[in-house]
Amino acid sequence: MTWARELRHLLTHQNGELRTERALAKFRDPDAELDQDEIDRADVGGKVRLGAPRVVKILDSLAAVVRTADAPVWALCWGRSGRAHWPETVTKLHEQKCIVIEPVQTDAAR
């Protein structure tokens, strides 16, 4: 999901431009470039090329995460007993790679 969000950022805020080698390595789709001439292939400073199969794969991956996480997250937020099962639900979502748990720095830790 993080990859898809980063791709969205690249497409939206950088006009699809691959500005670094890291972005090129991360988002380049060699399969979409198979029939392209060398000059039309992705490079730093060029545009990210998204083939239809890759877009469908990305969207399917996002849909799978949403299907897996939707009901438990809804229950946590709105269900009557959701908060009672908070640790188990969050752990399960983390194990299924639906969420990433990041430590939050409190004022006492600063």
Quick structural gist:
This protein has 110 residues and is mostly helical. The protein is built from 4 helices and no strands.
Describe the 3D structure.
It is elongated, with a radius of gyration of 19 Å. The chain contains 4 helices and no strands. The protein is mainly alpha-helical and 110 residues long. The protein has helices at 2-13, 21-27, 52-78, 86-95. Helices cover 51% and strands 0% of the residues. The model has no long low-confidence stretch (mean pLDDT 75).
Kindly report the average pLDDT value. Answer: 75
Q: DSSP helix count? A: 4
Approximately how much helix is present in the residues? 40-55%
Low-confidence stretches: none
Shape: elongated
| SSE pattern, N- to C-terminal | HHHH
Give the termini separation: 30 Å
What share of the residues does DSSP label as strand, in percent?
A: under 5%
- Global Rg: 19 Å
Largest sheet: none
Oligomer: single chain
Supply the helix-strand structural class.
mainly alpha
Number of strands: 0
